[in-house]
């Protein structure tokens, strides 16, 4: 008997709330409350830091997923890579490329964390001031911050760090970078614990993805070293490949990473497969 009023009162408001949240503009009061809550989240007045962080995280995830979906449908670079992966026998379902907040519990699980550090493929070393601070500590041990990571077998997936991107083109080059790692594993049976294998794939990924465009380097604050674009491009590839290999758990020191990159440089820099030439 007593359940009737309770179930009635609990279901009705839910229906109304659902309708209001679906279209807040249809209810002036709800629309105002929605606006007020958004204003609070922006100004920080009347909301907790946790609420603001959660709101920002959700916003970053939505933006990241939207950019990823657009790129998978329209980017010639991404479509080209997905096609050649498919032709090589490695289909990449859309859900295998996903956005996560990189401080999320998922990203910090032990398995994923070790894989992340193996492939911090698109480091954002100078892409934003907040990342700069943390990257300066990388010599002391923490994994370098990155915008994406390839999660090898059995995952065969690409993680994108929502909120770590400064443009859609940055998302594009990050996905392309990770797809080249995926292509290498699909075609060449890469052993990621072998530093020479890892170095070769990093050289190719940084060379072919657009990670080392001169505009990207300027944004990182690296400038264009040397007298010409070619030298700057190669310096960028070498620097980023060494940093990634150095983050491999199998790499004892930075010197080992430098040696691995140097040893395979000549053959891997000119290997542009599946492209005819550098994109
Ligand atoms: Zn990489």
From TrEMBL:
GO terms for molecular function: metal ion binding; metalloendopeptidase activity. It is a peripheral membrane protein. GO terms for biological process: mitochondrial protein processing; mitochondrial proton-transporting ATP synthase complex assembly. It is an enzyme of class 3 (hydrolase). Keywords: Hydrolase, Membrane, Metal-binding, Metalloprotease, Mitochondrion, Mitochondrion inner membrane, Protease. It comes from the Eukaryota. The keyword Protease applies. Residues 1-30, 116-148 are annotated as: Disordered. GO terms for cellular component: mitochondrial inner membrane. Residues 131-141 have a biased composition (Polar residues). It is found in: Mitochondrion inner membrane. Its EC number is 3.4.24.-. Pfam families: Peptidase_M76 (PF09768). Has a dual role in the assembly of mitochondrial ATPase. Belongs to the peptidase M76 family. This is Mitochondrial inner membrane protease ATP23.
């Amino acid at each position: 008997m007593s359940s009737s009023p309770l179930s009635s009162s609990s279901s009705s408001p839910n229906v109304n709330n659902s309708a209001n949240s679906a279209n807040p503009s249809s209810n002036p009061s709800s629309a105002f409350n929605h606006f007020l809550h958004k204003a609070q989240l922006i100004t920080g007045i009347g909301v907790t830091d946790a609420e603001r962080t959660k709101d920002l995280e959700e916003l970053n995830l939505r933006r990241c997923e939207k950019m990823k979906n657009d790129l998978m449908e329209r980017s010639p670079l991404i479509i080209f890579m997905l096609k050649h992966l498919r032709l090589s026998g490695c289909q990449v379902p859309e859900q295998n490329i996903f956005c996560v907040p990189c401080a999320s519990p998922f990203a910090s699980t032990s398995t994923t964390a070790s894989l992340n550090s193996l492939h911090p493929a698109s480091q954002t070393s100078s892409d934003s001031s907040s990342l700069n601070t943390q990257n300066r500590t990388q010599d002391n041990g923490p994994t370098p911050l990155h915008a994406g990571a390839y999660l090898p077998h059995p995952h065969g997936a690409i993680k994108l760090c929502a909120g770590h991107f400064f443009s859609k083109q940055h998302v594009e080059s990050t996905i392309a970078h990770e797809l080249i790692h995926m292509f290498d594993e699909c075609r060449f049976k890469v052993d990621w614990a072998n530093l020479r294998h890892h170095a070769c794939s990093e050289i190719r990924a940084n060379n072919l993805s657009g990670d080392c465009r001169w505009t990207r380097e300027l944004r990182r604050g690296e400038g264009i070293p040397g007298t010409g674009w070619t030298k700057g491009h190669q310096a960028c590839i070498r620097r980023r490949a060494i940093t990634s290999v150095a983050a491999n758990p199998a790499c004892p020191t930075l010197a080992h990473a430098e040696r691995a990159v140097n040893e395979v440089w000549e053959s891997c820099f000119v290997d542009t497969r599946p492209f005819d030439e550098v994109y």
